[in-house]
């Protein structure tokens, strides 16, 4: 160990173009851990104080330290002190110390599956007088106890620890079939993914980080996964170089790793080319290797490089010196034992079978590799193995469109033939997660993390009926947020072939009953059990045809390495002729989710056409290549059809529908293949192994909303809000309609979308062809539609339309989405469709598929109550309106409701990957305008003249309530269609009606007000600009400050509403009266004008402009100055649209006794003496005024 360091060099160039591809061996999982003392990002090349008091060390006995904790020297060398600590450097082997510190951990894993510290070792350090900074004196008063190391190796992050589970990409595969990582060849840098709970390694084409001069073991190329390439590399002349030192301050020490691998012991412990199966490690610090829970490789301690080798052909286990200062020709051996001896010492020899000192052939085992870097100096690691991996069974989780779905939880149960899980604990549990191959996957492992081997379970089952190893149930226990859970269980049965070729007998799980039975769980779940097959070639083989190139043996290695072709292809029997005649078989290509295709031609011509049509990745999956076992193998992860129908599995070959055939060709490229140069291979000596893959769909909860106007035309740009029930207060009106108001403190809805035309001809075959629409959730990660109650509301109407204020209640549960159409006439409809087949079922419906079980369906209309939804019931038959969406995205809904079902076809008439009408232009949707509309779908009979190779007859429905429903197999679509009524058109008359006020005789005595109000039969309805049914204007006396002064004012704008939906021929006349207010209350000496005017406004659409217009078409005086009516014949039009009012003031002297003007003021002055004369002269006064024009 070193105590000194220098600053880490700065990165000077990008290094990302210097990477190599990392691999993740099947059957192996790796967890990575970062530890720290002070904080995660602080330098760890010096201790912050007494290391036992900090970070990951607190309260623990296994200590991470930069400078040691207790006496150095280890416990194996001849000069090893008897007080050495497990937490200090074991020393240099050339000084008769060094090597591993043996016995730090117990010989058996703890009950929790993790190592435990052995009792009786020294672990605590004290400061020395000679070196008060370091704790290199051992405190012999305390010793270790059986403390579990689960705090270091479990996958929970915690105090001073960050865990990354199931990390990928550390290993490579060499030409001899060994998986390896070597820090002296490739620097490895780890990067976490977005979840920060897993991630992958990036491997670089050069090593990085050199030993400090202060350490004994000099080496170039070290393992520091939490450092980045830019921290340790420079690029010079296009090559990576590294000046970084292992003791630099920025180097991230203090980490750990745990790998778990499953393997099977091959015959004699040997793999291809007579190589022994081995597991080898070289490096520092602590490494403990357990097999089946027994410590077989003890390389513990803080030490220089050591090597561990396990030879499974002999069972020999050795630990040797591997440091730079060792005797390379004769390294010191510290441990030399055997697997059997290790099991015996642990008291476990009787728990597995042995052949001599190694495992018996065909036995299955689990290897745990625990690794720690506890110091602040070198960190070197080389790992290499060629363990023979048993097949793994896994779950592939997809949504309805075949996209991966992470986060689904599953439980696998072993059951009896009744498939009951009562009183049974799960055999395996887990959660699907994204894999490096782009799938969301869960490898089935037991509670200890061991891959479940169904062959081993079956072989080890000594019961007479083997029921517990034959029958299984796979249950989805929880779906990720926003998805519907698989409600029914997958029932599975383990089946084996009728015969075996060389190697361990292997079987697989199938759905039971199989899909050719109407009672199969396939039709209840949408989950499909498929089989994976690996074929391991013999070291040499022959071809079947006389005169063929390999009739007298070809060596497999020579064939593959020379570029010649050895491949396997799945063939399907065409149903005619002899099943043993290869010309009656056709090659099949494709995959489970995208469907299968039969190649053109027959026999070998079909095989050639299939191979030439494959992508490079598809071709790779069909080709034999070198694997980690050292053997040449083809691994096919997606067998079409059902394995129980394969030629290899059946005793009665005449019942075979599929076969896997191996071919050889001396062509060196696929393009060179012809029907005349490919030859079937005799595969009796090839080893076939099977495992299972379960495709399980989750239907993503999706709610569509469409906005239309009162004519059914789609509207884009309309925002809709979705609220959770606990976000709003709900009000139900007397007519049954519902509205909602956000609760206090709720500022934002749960989710928002805006309608658009994105689903019209968008090129996506799995989305509805709707315009003026959008879909919830807008973002699955942020607002998934989880189980619960929601309310959908229109936020704002588009210009020219009236907002629909009604809310739509939506319920989401495990069985799907339900939407309430409210009451008739509320502008809300719910449109239901069958949608698409879930991706796992597409092979049963797609055009061109050999099986048409689900190609033709019948869907019935119905309704359901809210109580039935809550109880998981299906509702009943009810009349709904048949409908269809056109290519323009507009939904055409029939006026007449019907209970008659619709017959549909998958991909029917323009529906692509949706169920559509059998006939062009037919209906394929149902719409309801009240309550909770639903549909129920079942299998339909084939139309006349239609045929297919295969079909399972399901129970069909005649009433909608009987037969086998297909709700688990089809997505269903739920669209809420919200109608906006158009706003009534409005037309404005701007400042067109005026009043002119004039005073004569003197300045105005006060202000004047004039009123415009509708004249019967005209009312104020539909007129904007009136207050209390009228409008008024005023003229200030300041504007009439002298005799003869005049002032004109306008009544302002009047806006008229045209009734919504009015035809272009609509017209209307509005009549108004204009008068002066308080004209009968004139002050003394004044005569106020009591005239009245009538105005007619005509509203009509301008034929030229297409716009509604309002215009004054009549403006006449209807009363004179004195308020007397003017005969209609005497009225004249005022073209200036101005009502004139003139008030006059008269003096006393101007009033004659017999005629002449007189005013109220005069009469008041003369008093009673003139009263009689005034009365007598009244008639004459009126006539005089008429003559003078005062009442004109």
UniProtKB/TrEMBL annotation:
The keyword Transmembrane is annotated on this UniProt entry: yes
Region of interest (Disordered), ranges: 939-963
UniProt-listed InterPro entries: Ig-like_fold, SpaA_PFL_dom_1, Strep_pil_isopept_link, Strep_pil_link_sf
Segments forming domain SpaA-like prealbumin fold: 703-818
One Gene Ontology biological process: carbohydrate metabolic process
Pfam family, one: FctA
Positions of transmembrane segments: 1162-1181
Domain of life: Bacteria
Key words of the record: Membrane, Transmembrane, Transmembrane helix
Domain Streptococcal pilin isopeptide linkage: start-end pairs: 993-1146
Protein name: PA14 domain-containing protein
Upper classification of the organism: Bacteria, Bacillati, Actinomycetota, Actinomycetes, Bifidobacteriales
């Amino acid at each position: 160990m070193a105590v000194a360091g220098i600053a880490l060099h700065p990165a000077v160039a990008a290094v990302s173009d210097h990477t190599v591809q990392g691999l993740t061996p099947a059957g192996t999982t790796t967890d990575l851990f970062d530890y720290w003392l002070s904080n995660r990002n602080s330098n760890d090349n010096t201790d912050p104080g007494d290391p036992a008091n900090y970070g990951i060390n607190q309260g623990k006995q296994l200590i991470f330290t930069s400078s040691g904790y207790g006496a150095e020297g280890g416990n194996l060398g001849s000069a090893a002190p008897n007080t050495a600590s497990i937490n200090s450097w074991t020393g240099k082997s050339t000084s008769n110390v060094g090597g591993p510190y043996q016995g730090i951990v117990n010989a058996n894993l703890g009950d929790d599956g993790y190592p435990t510290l052995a009792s009786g070792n020294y672990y605590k350090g004290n400061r020395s007088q000679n070196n008060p900074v370091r704790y290199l004196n051992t405190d012999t008063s305390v010793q270790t106890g059986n403390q579990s190391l689960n705090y270091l190796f479990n996958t929970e992050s915690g105090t001073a620890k960050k865990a990354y589970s199931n990390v990928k990409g550390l290993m490579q595969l060499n030409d001899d079939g060994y998986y390896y990582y070597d820090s002296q060849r490739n620097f490895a840098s780890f990067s976490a993914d977005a979840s920060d709970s897993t991630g992958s390694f990036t491997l670089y084409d050069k090593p990085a980080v050199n030993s400090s001069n202060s350490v004994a073991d000099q080496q170039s190329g070290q393992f520091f996964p939490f450092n980045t390439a830019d921290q340790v590399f420079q690029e010079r002349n296009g090559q990576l170089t590294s000046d970084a030192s292992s003791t630099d301050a920025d180097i991230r020490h203090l980490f750990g790793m745990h790998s778990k691998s499953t393997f099977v012991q091959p015959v004699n412990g040997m793999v291809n080319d007579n190589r022994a199966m081995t597991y080898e490690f070289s490096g520092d610090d602590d490494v403990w290797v357990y097999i089946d829970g027994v410590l077989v490789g003890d390389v513990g301690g803080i030490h220089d490089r050591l090597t561990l080798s396990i030879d499974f052909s002999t069972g020999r286990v050795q630990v040797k010196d591997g440091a730079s200062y060792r005797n390379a020709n004769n390294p010191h051996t510290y441990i030399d034992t055997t697997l059997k001896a290790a099991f015996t010492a642990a008291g476990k020899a009787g728990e597995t079978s042995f052949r001599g000192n190694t495992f018996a052939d065909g036995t299955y085992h689990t290897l745990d590799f625990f690794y720690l870097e506890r110091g602040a100096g070198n960190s070197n690691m080389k790992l290499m193995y060629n363990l023979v991996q048993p097949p793994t069974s896994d779950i592939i989780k997809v949504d309805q469109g075949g996209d991966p779905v992470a986060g689904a939880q599953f439980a696998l149960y072993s059951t009896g033939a009744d498939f009951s899980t009562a009183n049974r604990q799960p055999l395996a549990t887990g959660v699907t997660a994204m894999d490096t191959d782009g799938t969301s996957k869960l490898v089935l492992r037991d509670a200890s993390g061991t891959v479940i081997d169904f062959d081993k379970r079956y072989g080890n089952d000594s019961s007479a009926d083997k029921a517990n190893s034959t029958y299984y149930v796979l249950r989805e226990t929880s779906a990720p947020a926003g998805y519907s859970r698989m409600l029914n269980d997958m029932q599975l049965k383990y089946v084996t072939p009728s015969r075996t070729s060389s190697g361990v007998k292997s079987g697989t799980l199938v759905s039971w009953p199989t899909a050719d039975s109407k009672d199969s769980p396939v039709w209840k779940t949408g989950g499909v059990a498929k089989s994976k097959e690996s074929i391991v070639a013999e070291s040499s083989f022959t071809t079947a045809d006389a005169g063929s190139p390999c009739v007298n043996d070809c060596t497999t290695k020579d064939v593959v390495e020379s570029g010649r072709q050895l491949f396997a292809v799945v063939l399907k029997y065409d149903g005619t002729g002899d099943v043993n005649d290869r010309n009656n078989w056709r090659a099949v290509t494709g995959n489970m989710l995208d469907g299968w295709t039969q190649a053109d031609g027959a026999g070998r011509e079909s095989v050639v056409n299939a191979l030439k049509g494959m992508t490079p990745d598809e071709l790779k999956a069909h080709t034999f290549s070198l694997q980690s076992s050292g053997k040449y193998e083809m691994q096919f992860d997606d067998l079409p059809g059902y394995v129980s129908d394969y030629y290899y599995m059946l005793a009665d070959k005449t019942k075979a529908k599929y076969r896997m055939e191996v071919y050889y060709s001396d062509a060196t490229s696929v393009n060179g293949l012809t029907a005349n140069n490919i030859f079937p291979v005799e595969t009796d000596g090839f080893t076939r192994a099977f495992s299972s893959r379960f495709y399980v769909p989750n239907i993503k909860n999706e709610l569509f909303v469409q906005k239309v106007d009162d004519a059914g035309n789609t509207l884009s740009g309309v925002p809709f809000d979705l609220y959770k029930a606990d976000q709003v207060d709900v009000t139900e009106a007397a007519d049954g309609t519902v509205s909602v108001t956000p609760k206090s403190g709720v500022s934002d809805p749960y989710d928002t979308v805006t309608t658009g035309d994105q689903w019209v001809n968008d090129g996506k075959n799995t989305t509805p062809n709707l315009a003026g629409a959008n879909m919830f959730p807008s973002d699955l990660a942020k607002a998934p539609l989880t189980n619960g109650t929601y309310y959908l509301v229109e936020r704002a109407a588009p210009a020219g339309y009236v907002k629909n204020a009604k809310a739509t209640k939506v319920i989401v549960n495990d069985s799907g989405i339900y939407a309430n159409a409210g009451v008739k006439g509320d502008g809300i409809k719910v449109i239901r469709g069958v949608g698409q087949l879930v991706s796992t079922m597409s092979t049963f419906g797609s055009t061109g598929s050999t099986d048409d079980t689900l190609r033709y369906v019948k869907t019935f209309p119905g309704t359901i109550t809210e109580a039935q939804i809550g109880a998981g019931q299906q509702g009943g038959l009810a009349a709904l309106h048949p409908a269809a969406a056109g290519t323009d995205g507009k939904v055409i809904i029939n006026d007449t409701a019907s209970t008659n079902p619709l017959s549909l076809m998958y991909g029917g008439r323009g529906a692509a990957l949706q169920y559509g009408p059998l006939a062009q232009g037919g209906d394929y949707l149902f719409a309801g305008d009240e309550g909770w509309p639903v549909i129920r779908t079942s299998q339909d009979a084939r139309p006349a003249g239609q045929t297919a190779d295969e079909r399972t007859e399901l129970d069909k429905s005649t009433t909608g309530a009987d037969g086998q429903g297909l709700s688990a197999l089809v997505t269903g679509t739920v669209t809420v269609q919200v109608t906006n009524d158009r706003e009534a058109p409005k037309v404005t008359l701007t400042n067109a009606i005026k009043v002119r006020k004039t005073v004569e005789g003197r300045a105005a005595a006060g202000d004047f007000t004039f009123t415009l109000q509708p004249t019967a039969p005209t009312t104020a309805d539909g007129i904007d600009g009136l207050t209390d049914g009228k409008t008024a204007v005023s003229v200030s006396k300041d504007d009439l400050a002298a005799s003869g002064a005049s002032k004109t004012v306008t009544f302002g704008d009047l806006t008229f509403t045209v009734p919504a939906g009015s035809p272009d021929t609509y017209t209307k006349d509005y009549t108004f009266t204009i008068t002066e207010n308080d004209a009968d209350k004139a002050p003394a000496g004044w005569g106020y004008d009591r005239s009245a005017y009538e105005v007619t406004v005509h509203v009509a659409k301008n034929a030229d402009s297409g716009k509604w217009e309002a215009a004054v078409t009549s403006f006449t005086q209807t009363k004179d100055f004195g308020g007397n009516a003017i005969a209609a014949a005497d009225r004249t039009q005022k073209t200036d649209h101005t009502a004139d009012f003139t008030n006059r003031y008269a003096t006393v002297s101007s009033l004659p006794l017999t005629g002449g003007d007189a005013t109220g003021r005069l009469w008041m002055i003369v008093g009673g003496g003139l009263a009689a004369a005034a009365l007598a002269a009244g008639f004459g006064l009126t006539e005089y005024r008429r003559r003078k024009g005062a009442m004109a």
